[in-house]
Amino acid sequence: MAPHANEVPAAGTIPKKIQAVANATIADDNVWQWIHDVTASSPIQPPVNLGTGFIDHNPPAFLIEAHKTALDSVDNNQYAPVPGSDLLRETIADMYSPLYGRQLDPITEVCVTNGAQEGLLSSVLSFVQAGDEVILLEPVFAMYVYQIKVAGGVIRYVPLRPPQESMTSTVSGNDWTIDLAELEQAITSKTKMIYLNNPHNPLGKVFTVAELTAIGNLCISHGLVLLSDEVYERIVFPQDSGSQPDTPTTHIRVASLSPEIASHTITAVSLGKLFNATGWRAGFVIGCEALMRPVISTHLVLAYSSSGPAQEACAIGLREAERQRWWAVNAADVGARIRRLCRALDTTGLTYVAPASAWFVFVNIDAIKLPENYPYPPIVINEGTRDWKVCYWLVQEFGIASIPGSCFYGPENKRLGERYLRFGACKSDEGLELAAQRLLQLHQHVSKAV
């Protein structure tokens, strides 16, 4: 029977020519939406959401006040210039020129974007097209994968390797290393870009000068773009006196290592993450003029411009944060929250990757004993790895949300990640206390010997 004139046809009857293109489904069934939905429907309420990087406390008061003041300006409430407001770009150039060891041109070498995410996507779309290869270092943030697939690129994965003692003991994220020979072997005639994340999510690894120099020199010798996501650049924790002598105590900007490396590098920074204001969607990218010209053009097409009031506030906030030495205060605060979560994991009996930076802890789940014949939904069964089962079970039985470790790996190395879950410490004191209580309940399900 033909449908009535006013009836909407079922999805299966929509003409093929107006069905979504393949790229529109790249992020279908993504873990971020899944964990949100599962957590919201958990029988244990309120849940403790340690899965996403949602910060549940406010940015500094001086930043909020600057934003309120910015709203009174007519100019700030209209379109900002495409590459960013003059004030913010000049502030970025002034503050970052000493950090890069060269004078940045605020007009040609800085572009303000809608968070680092859009800056990274603009960079990928500017240099990667169908058939181009991009190297990702595992574990890897899934958004990088989506960006490359949207551009039509081909991903080659190179895993960071954990130390042997990580099988049974807590180790540092800095102990995970890159096999530079393996990295170079992954480069082919089709390789266009190496995508770096430093400091690293989810390991919290801060790459050393030697590692970064080697990666940068590979980009020079093979003619590659080095896209460096450095959104946690100001959140490196103070190291204890027992740290190894070569343990980085500050973030090293890869573009600062040499003029040659800088000429191949695009760096992305998140003002939202730096100021605990991720909802503002404020970020920027820095690079030499030849690299930035196409990025600015792509940014225009994707977003046109970014929030005027947020740009004004961030320009003031960057100066004020420097004046108040707020970066060190914030890094110490984040480090204290990480240590608090790690103490709860110690009490529970779980080992983990102790981060030197960022908000996350990669937790080893080998010792967790799952009940037999537990009912899992189809998506968990289809994924086929143990981390998804543990993740779902923790939400349903303890109200603890996390992200399965295998989500940070490509198909070939997926099994390397299934021994882990990613927990986030970006919670209030009350949230971390509740997390500690929930984790303590898990203790009876943790084996003493792995």
TrEMBL record:
What is the protein name for this chain?
Kynurenine aminotransferas-like protein
- Stretches assigned to the Aminotransferase class I/classII large domain: 48-439
Q: Which UniProt keywords apply?
A: Aminotransferase, Pyridoxal phosphate, Transferase
What Gene Ontology molecular function terms does this protein carry? kynurenine-oxoglutarate transaminase activity; pyridoxal phosphate binding
PANTHER family registered for this protein in UniProt: FI04487P (PTHR43807:SF20)
The terms describing its cellular component in GO are: mitochondrion
Q: Which organism is it from?
A: Massariosphaeria phaeospora
Family to which this protein belongs:
Belongs to the class-I pyridoxal-phosphate-dependent aminotransferase family.
InterPro entries with a match to the protein in the record: Aminotransferase_I/II_large, Kynurenine-oxoglutarate_AT, NHTrfase_class1_PyrdxlP-BS, PyrdxlP-dep_Trfase, PyrdxlP-dep_Trfase_major, PyrdxlP-dep_Trfase_small
